[in-house]
Description:
Elements: H1 3-27, H2 35-63
Amino acid sequence: MNNFFYFKVTFLSISAGLFAGIFVYGLFDIDLSNSEAITKLLLKSLATGIGTGIVLGILNMFFKIGNFPKKEN
Length: 73
């Protein structure tokens, strides 16, 4: 397994989880009739998810944390 595999697995899981979590949590706090608030929430959750995913993906690329199954050739 190369370093990109560790980055990809961490980036995708963290980004998707944080994006969905922040977006759903934020929907409880905003007025759903205001489309500007929904757009701002969507962009904020997307930026937070991607930013955190990149940082943690790069860290995982160097430290190689995780019990990923070995590929059998």
